[in-house]
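Sharing a chain and its predicted structure for anyone who wants a worked example. Both blocks are below, sequence first, tokens second.
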Amino acid sequence: MQRIYDIILFWSITHLARKIIVKHGEFSKPRMYAVLASGLVGALAYTFSDSFWFSAVEGEVYAMSSFFTAIVFWAILKWEDEADEKYALRWLILIAYLMGLSIGVHLLNLLTIPAITFVYYFKKYKNHSFKNIVLVFIISIIILAGIMNGIIPWIVKLAGLFELFFVNSVGLPFNWGTIIYFILLIGGIVWGLKYTRRHKKVVANTIILAFTFILIGYSSFLMLVIRSNTNTPINENNPSNAIGLLSYLNREQYGDWPLLTGQYFNAPSIDAKDGKPVYERDNAKGKYVISNDKKGTVPVYDPRFTTLFPRMWSSSEQSQINEYKRWGKIQGTPIQVETPDGTQTINKPTFTENLRFFFSYQIRHMYYRYFMWNFVGKQNDTQGFGNNSDGNWISGISFMDNARLGPQDNLPDSMKSKGTNKFYFLPLILGLIGLYYHYKTQKNDTWVVALLFVMTGLAIVVYLNQYCPQPRERDYAYAGSFYAFAIWIGLGVLALYDWISRKLKPMLTVILVTFFTLILVPGIMGQQGWDDHDRSGRYSVLEIAKNYLNSCAPNAVLFTIGDNDTFPLWYAQEVEGIRTDVRVVNLSLLSGSWYVDQMTRKAYDSDPVPFSMKHDQYRDGNRDYVVLYDRNTKNISVSVKDIINFIADDNNRLEVNNGKLMNYIPSKKMYIPVDSNLVVANGTVPKAWDDSIVPVNFEVKGNGLTKNYLMLLDFLATNNWKRPVYFSSPNLDEAFSGLSDYLYLEGLAYHLIPVKVQNDGGQVGGVNSQPMYDNFMNKFTWGNMNNPKVYLDETHRRMALNVRNNFGRLADQLAVEGKKDKAIAVGDKCQKELPDNCLTYDYYMLPLAEAYYKAGAFDKGNKLFTRLLNIYQQNLAYYYSLDPVYSSQFNMDKQQALAVLQRIGQVAKANNQKALETKALGVFEKYYGFYVKENKNLGQ
């Protein structure tokens, strides 16, 4: 795909360059070579640009989306070449078809429409007045909006309306409304084509053909409906009919955000209006029924806290509010608001602060920074949150980088990264030369490329209206904009040839310009970016997915938390066929009734997940949130089975303020009863622990449970210890307090065992050392994480740190149990599989070093402690070499480093390791003195 993409970009650049040559002189052999050099350098520069290169080697939609952007732009240039020929309109029809296909990949491709419209305008019309240009731009936006907000949703929406009418009102069988709709649609198209052809209405005929080919491409979405109706094991959102497909296409599960007008993040809600009702198929009634009426679900905000062009709008998390205040430097305007609790003063952000956030975060941080990554250089591969130490752009020119970011030449080991790429401004400079030359020689084409650049860059910034902080870097969204700039990089080569050839011989000039630009732009970009885009030999994600699955007993149920936990496991099962007896249940998705339905069906070798509630009891709009109304006056634990039976009974409901009846949880305290004989017999509890078996006691945390946790509770009540239960993470405190006290690491996953954790090592959950030792030492593999030639990016490093932590927990538990030889073997294994030269040691290695001490291996413990001491001493020396402006950004890192040094000193003292104690505490006291001086309030 990347090679095809490069060829298309090469064709586009050479087309634009050839137009310049033809317009301004003879097309000689040196000039032909200069045109080819332009295409070569521009295409290779984009090939080695960070964002496109990352997308090209990732299993995501963005590389394919970029391909469609490239090919439709090239197609309109081909039309421009043949515009006066008989069959030139075929290129416009091809563009329509490609855009229809691209909808099935990603909508970004549609943003090429304004550029395509201007190519058509400049070719067909000679009067290029400002008024006409504005009019053409408006028309292009109307076409774009017509496809995005008209064709894409309404083709499916009308199918849904027909389906509802003919099934619910006329009484026809399911799907007949959709069939009638498409018969009428196809019939209308055929009649329109015949009519316009008979009456020689060429423009109308072309419009209908373009519409038809958009639909033909768009019809690729029918694959989703066909696939969904086969009930595949992975079937997100279940788009099995026109109604479900519309919800899927509208991305309703992701919510909405304001664009032109809307609320600020702290806008109080003064009312609520009805949302769109949710329909589902009822086979028993033979019609579609409303599963969720969505009445009173859409908040209406106080108009005093709304604004034009709202940029700071999301308030779903306190972290977002804090970041709005930081980036917008919000002081606000105090406004008194009447609330049920009385009068409250809320500081409404000013419009100036709103725009400050837009320019500082959304444009500078979330676009300009990415642009500079690609054409100037990248500081490292760590996600940036607006500080100078992570994810910024860097050039490689020391005096500039050091002045902007702080010293970059003496970075400690922990901050050095293969993700550092230095381009010395050369791609940017060549691109700006190309932009200037393009404008001077071919103004119309410059505006076309500029439109492509803006619409796939800044226009996306405005449309996405991203909140802060984002969960990951979003540079891939702007690959189309960087594509447009690569065109100017190519034309920069032609500019250099044009200028230098006036002084030197043309053939010599083209040789020199081609050689130097090829080496200094794509050459440097490729050399700098190779090590952090080369994924060869890196199999850690698959191996860790296998390790999670192999942590589980046969026929287990493994609850995961989010996408990153789940997708690798799905791949391992679906593609590699690994441990298909384990049912992976994504706890985040369990809030959707469609997902619960899928869990109740057998998948491969995995039995259905047992739930007691039926579909009508957990469908959308029913028990989406169950409030806690504690009526447990005796303050005793209640069986989860009784709790679920109570919640499932509609006779047990509360009347809330709006007169609506709601199911509720009658007791905060609950327990899972245990049949001791059963859990020992089926291997849930090791025989050595049989005298420690207790009911699993825990409490509901907060004011109630969302549906996903309610269904987890239902499963725990219904399963009755028949199937082994595991969690990818022990952190369930969002919903349940105390449940993690019964979770034991047996590999990478935590096993729910009715034995309370005694030794947690200061972390969540416990360790079942016997199966965990066997897994870590004999079964698990780590996918070349011990190979220094294999690149571990930030995501893989975080994953590796979790593995190190688990090694440390296992070693510590073995040492506590007196199994010293095994504890030492685990420590050695960890350092072999996750060595310092692949992933610099950090505080996760502390438990491992302490385990060495507990096992009597003081030489190994001292060696590891000494390495940690040197690393954190080096870090602190770097932090305090910085100007205070930059140094303050590392306060959390300083605290961590000081804590590690202090801990090393304490452990060394407790184990009579005098030399290590003296050095560690000496370094600690030195830098703690610096820290106290910086933060005088801490020294009081």
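Comments welcome. DSSP finds 34 helices and 24 strands in the chain.
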